[in-house]
């Protein structure tokens, strides 16, 4: 009987299982080809050059408007280094501007707001409100309360590698649970 119990115990040793819960805050309600900045979605249109009026209509068809730009938008301003982009009136200039006529419209170039004849053709920047109803998570993640979650089950040998899926998706490791299956009790 003792030998049977020892054999049974040897066959019932289970490795640890680790469950890791990752959380990902990078939920975006912007279309994939748009960028989010401070809760607003932006898109640069540099291959389509149109006059100011058509640029505005184009943005309105997309349920937005020309982008309002201010000097604090450093991430967006970096993208304006090479082309001219129509932007919304009253965008904030980084330096005082001379008085402009009604036929002049604002454009962004080299991080500065300038004015040009509204009939000139330039690229443009559209903005649309962030749409919380369209929030999505990366494939394999679940959406809950505007955050993405993912559980990963791994053995204890691969614990360090298991947190990398969290980091690779700009997420972070929330917690882990180590479990050990119970050994069978011999009769």
UniProtKB/TrEMBL annotation:
PROSITE patterns reported in the protein's UniProt record: PROKAR_LIPOPROTEIN
Domain of life, per lineage: Eukaryota
Leader sequence residues: 1-29
InterPro entries: C-type_lectin-like/link_sf (IPR016186), C-type_lectin/matrix_domain (IPR050828), CTDL_fold (IPR016187)
UniProt keywords, alphabetically: Signal
Name of the protein described by the UniProt record: C-type lectin domain-containing protein
Provenance organism: Caerostris extrusa (Bark spider)
Gene name tied to this protein: X975_06446
């Amino acid at each position: 009987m003792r030998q049977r119990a020892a054999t049974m115990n040897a066959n019932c040793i289970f490795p640890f299982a680790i469950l890791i819960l990752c959380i990902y805050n990078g939920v975006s309600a912007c279309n994939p080809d748009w960028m989010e900045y401070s809760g607003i979605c932006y898109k640069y249109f540099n291959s389509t050059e149109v006059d100011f009026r058509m640029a505005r209509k184009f943005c309105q068809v997309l349920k937005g408007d020309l982008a309002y730009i201010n000097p604090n938008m450093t991430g967006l301003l970096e993208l304006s280094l090479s082309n001219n982009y129509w932007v919304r009136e009253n965008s904030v200039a980084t330096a005082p501007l001379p008085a402009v006529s009604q036929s002049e419209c604002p454009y962004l170039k080299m991080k500065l707001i300038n004015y040009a004849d509204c009939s000139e053709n330039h690229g443009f920047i559209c903005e649309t409100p962030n749409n919380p109803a369209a929030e999505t998570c990366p494939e394999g993640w679940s959406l809950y309360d505007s955050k993405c979650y993912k559980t990963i089950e791994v053995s204890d040998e691969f614990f360090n590698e298991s947190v990398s899926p969290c980091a690779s998706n700009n997420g972070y490791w929330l917690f882990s649970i180590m479990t050990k299956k119970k050994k069978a009790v011999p009769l």
